[in-house]
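USER:
Make up one protein:

ASSISTANT:
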Amino acid sequence: MKRKTILAAAALTGLLLLSGCEWFSGEHLTDSERAAAFIETANESPRDYVALREHFHPNAPSYASMNTSGFWEETFFDLGEQPFATRGLQAGDALSGFPGTSSLSGSITSRTFPDDGVAIQFGFLPDPAKSLNRLIYVIIVDDGTDVIRNIH
């Protein structure tokens, strides 16, 4: 009886692995891992705009436009700003207007802001169609002016 149970568990595990179950395939990323993966994709050259958009939840405000070069060249994340890096990301409160989100706040450096960087906040929303988190917004605030430069 014990042997049948072990075989059944092994067969079930194999089926889940072959079916692409996200829990086993590692597609679920923590908020920190998702932010790091987004920054890694933003640093790629040549840039894959579809891959950039894949980091975002389909309900993100600009989701429909994110797979084009024109969209990204209008943001802080244009190719001329590379390389990007984050510093001191910490869990924070979600923005009002984005219920159900979690967030990370810290700073981001770029070619224009290489030293201290500028303030950044990543917002995440679980994707109900898949068991993974997706970015729903990225906000960058000009150094000390509290003016939102970008929201996606």
Notes: The chain has one domain: 28-150. The helical segments are 2-18, 22-25, 31-42, 49-53, 69-73. Residues 4-26 have pLDDT under 50 and may be disordered.
